[in-house]
Amino acid sequence: MSIPYLRKTKTSSQLIVNGEPFLMLSAELHNSTLSSAKYMADDKIWQNMKAMHINTLLGSVSWEQIEPVEGQFDFSNLDAIILAAREHGLKLVLLWFGSFKNALSTYVPAWVKKDVKRFPRVHTLEAGGKRKTLELLSPFNEAAWQADAKAFAKLMAHLKEFDGQHSTVLMVQVENETGLLGDSKDRSKIAEQKFNEPVPKELLEHLQSKKNELHPEFQKRYPDLSAITIGQATWKDVFGADDITNADEMFMADAFSRYIHHVASAGKAEYPIPLYANVWLNFDDPASLDLTDIPVVVGGGAKAGIYPSGGPCPHTLNVYNFNAPSLDFIGPDLYFHEYESTCRNYRYGGQPLFIPEQRRDDKGVRRIWSAYGNHLALGCSPFGIDSLQASECELTKHYGLIHSLRKQILEAQAERPEDMLGFYFDDFTEGQQIKEKPWTKNMGGFEVIIERAFVFGKPGPGAGLVIHQGEGRFLCAGWGFNISFRSLNPKSTFTGILHAEEKEVDPESCELTTLKLLGGDETRSGEFLIMPNEDPDYGGFPIAS
Questions:
Q1: Contact, 185 vs 195, CB < 8 A?
Q2: pLDDT by residue (tens digit) across 151-206?
Q3: Architecture of domain 5-415
């Protein structure tokens, strides 16, 4: 039996589990939930996750828990968790809270926290030039990454021994939202010394040789990299011409990515299942954030240090990809950033998309259709899922339908990504004006046009997926939309729906059977197919939609 791995597809990769493609219907637990098998032993938690149609849970494993005394490892809690997950038919993605968690080092063991001489911290400058020591391990400290790498290697070796024949654990996240908050770079003596040294020759050579393949966000910031002389230019020379904080950030990205690679490569040598890192995103323009009545500060930050400086943001991804080849991909924690552009940013270069954290509300859940359908996501993970009940959670409905169609989605993701379109329409507040374009895509010789389902009164939300199945046949799934078609044949004078059926699907086999014929009313005499909102009285009009 093979271990979980990523297999290349036509334009991306898929997760292969027990020899078959696996679509993660994932969600992330609160940070401390997985720390207690006793807490998780309450069947209400496991059964509630199953009732939501979740098949993969993300949860943390902290360094302090598995190595409370240096050199003494305890995996008893983790083993109990893995056994319980197997019993309930769920898979796991483990989050290694090692040296770094949300730009701090608060999950390291006490013996690391107390030994500041062996494990020095990052120093920053506050307003007025006041020096401050952060509870953040210096990424320039070899002793720190060696200790972390040793612990992570032990964890991965144990997973191989305990779970290698079962593949309960599918992937592992290495560290969490790495970077530095409160300043753009480390101001310790060793950091200042290294900052004034030349940019590593191999990194600069790589960036120059791949000039036309670098991420657009990198190219936008550093368009003239080819003019830099290798072997002499410092970080300030290469990246700080317009803003010294840009040089600071790239310097920290180099340090953190090398640190993470040391840790990840040690683990991968023991058990080479997929490894990834996640990112606390930045923003360049606050107007690009998807915020309504929410303070802009929750969106991250526009300056390095307001968001974690040195994390794998889009403009630093090339540094991470070069320095940390042990990572299979980088996944965005996607809460308030514009969903589509963020997904594109983290699909750049053909890397697979996995969203380790995202909004769990209705607005967030609707967006997973685009992640799976347009960006070929391995999975999307609403955060803090264990504090919601399946009967009251919007995720239950959406994951239930996606679960039933997982085989069709996986086949299209791998073989025919050009034949699939995911979409969503958000709810509107009273009196809000609708300003939206339809979702469109050319498939099978037709332009497919998805619009919000019309109802009298208040416009309703919607979400779903369309897959072209050949010869002008389309599979439509979801709620609250209308779908119409326009022939791309220049000789065509009319395009209409010839025949439409409502299908029911077996959730285990994914086999579709006809439930009823959809006549002229449901297709407006062949003009467009109506996939209504579930509430027939939505919008307050006295005639049912």
A1: yes
A2: 999 999 999 999 999 999 999 999 999 999 999 999 999 999 999 999 999 999 99
A3: Alpha-Beta Barrel (3.20)
